[in-house]
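Q: what sequence does this backbone want?
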């Protein structure tokens, strides 16, 4: 979605609910969340989405470079409204960067970049993953009580979409890993059978030989097994 036309909040919420996870991926979902927030929230904002797993935070979607830059400054220092909002599962507002005292270094850098106010809304994703919807405005006091309430409501809808997308992505990744593991096991079993037939040895002895070849050639076990099977087939 690339249109910058303002969007009615009800339409934005409906759009979030219509996301089909089978037809998109996590990055696309997060990009759509950022774009919808930019079009829905007041203050002509730039928006980013932060995800945090353990001690590692990264910006996975943003509508403009200033949003990404302000996020990165927080990650470098280990503190800032988006990190604190995500960890505390709350909303943090910076009405005016010029007089902000909670994160003085960061707010000064934000003001130098032309950003005068911001919102950070927590996005719970999974037990080991949290996030934040970060909204930056060039205007001071861009987010009054109504704007904060709207942003929090948007964040609630967005959190569901992001959590579902993250779960779907993780499930799809696990399925791919399991399929690869099963394929690896199958080809290794084939290679073991070939060696057992050639050398009249046991399954354990055949596996030990494949492992030694893997170490000696500095190649993955599956690659060695595939080569042995291909050689036996004459391909």
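A:
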């Amino acid at each position: 979605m690339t249109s910058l036309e303002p969007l009615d909040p009800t339409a934005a919420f409906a759009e979030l609910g219509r996301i089909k996870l089978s037809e998109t991926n996590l990055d696309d979902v997060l990009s759509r969340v950022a774009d919808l927030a930019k079009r829905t929230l007041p203050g002509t904002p730039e928006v980013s989405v932060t995800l945090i797993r353990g001690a590692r935070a990264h910006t996975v979607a943003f509508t403009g470079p200033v949003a990404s830059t302000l996020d990165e400054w927080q990650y470098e220092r280990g503190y800032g409204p988006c990190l604190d909002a995500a960890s505390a599962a709350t909303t943090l507002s910076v009405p005016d960067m010029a007089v902000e005292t909670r994160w003085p270094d960061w707010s000064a850098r934000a003001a130098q970049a032309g950003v005068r106010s911001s919102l950070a809304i927590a996005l719970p994703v999974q037990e080991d993953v949290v996030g934040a919807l970060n909204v930056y405005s060039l205007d001071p006091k861009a987010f009054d009580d109504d704007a904060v309430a709207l942003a929090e409501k948007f964040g609630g809808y967005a959190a569901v979409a992001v959590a579902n997308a993250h779960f779907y992505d993780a499930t799809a990744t696990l399925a791919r890993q399991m399929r690869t593991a099963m394929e690896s096991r199958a080809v290794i079993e084939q290679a073991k059978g070939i060696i057992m037939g050639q050398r009249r040895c046991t399954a354990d002895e055949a596996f030990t030989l494949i492992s030694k070849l893997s170490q000696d050639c500095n190649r993955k076990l599956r690659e060695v097994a595939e080569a042995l099977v291909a050689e036996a087939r004459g391909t």
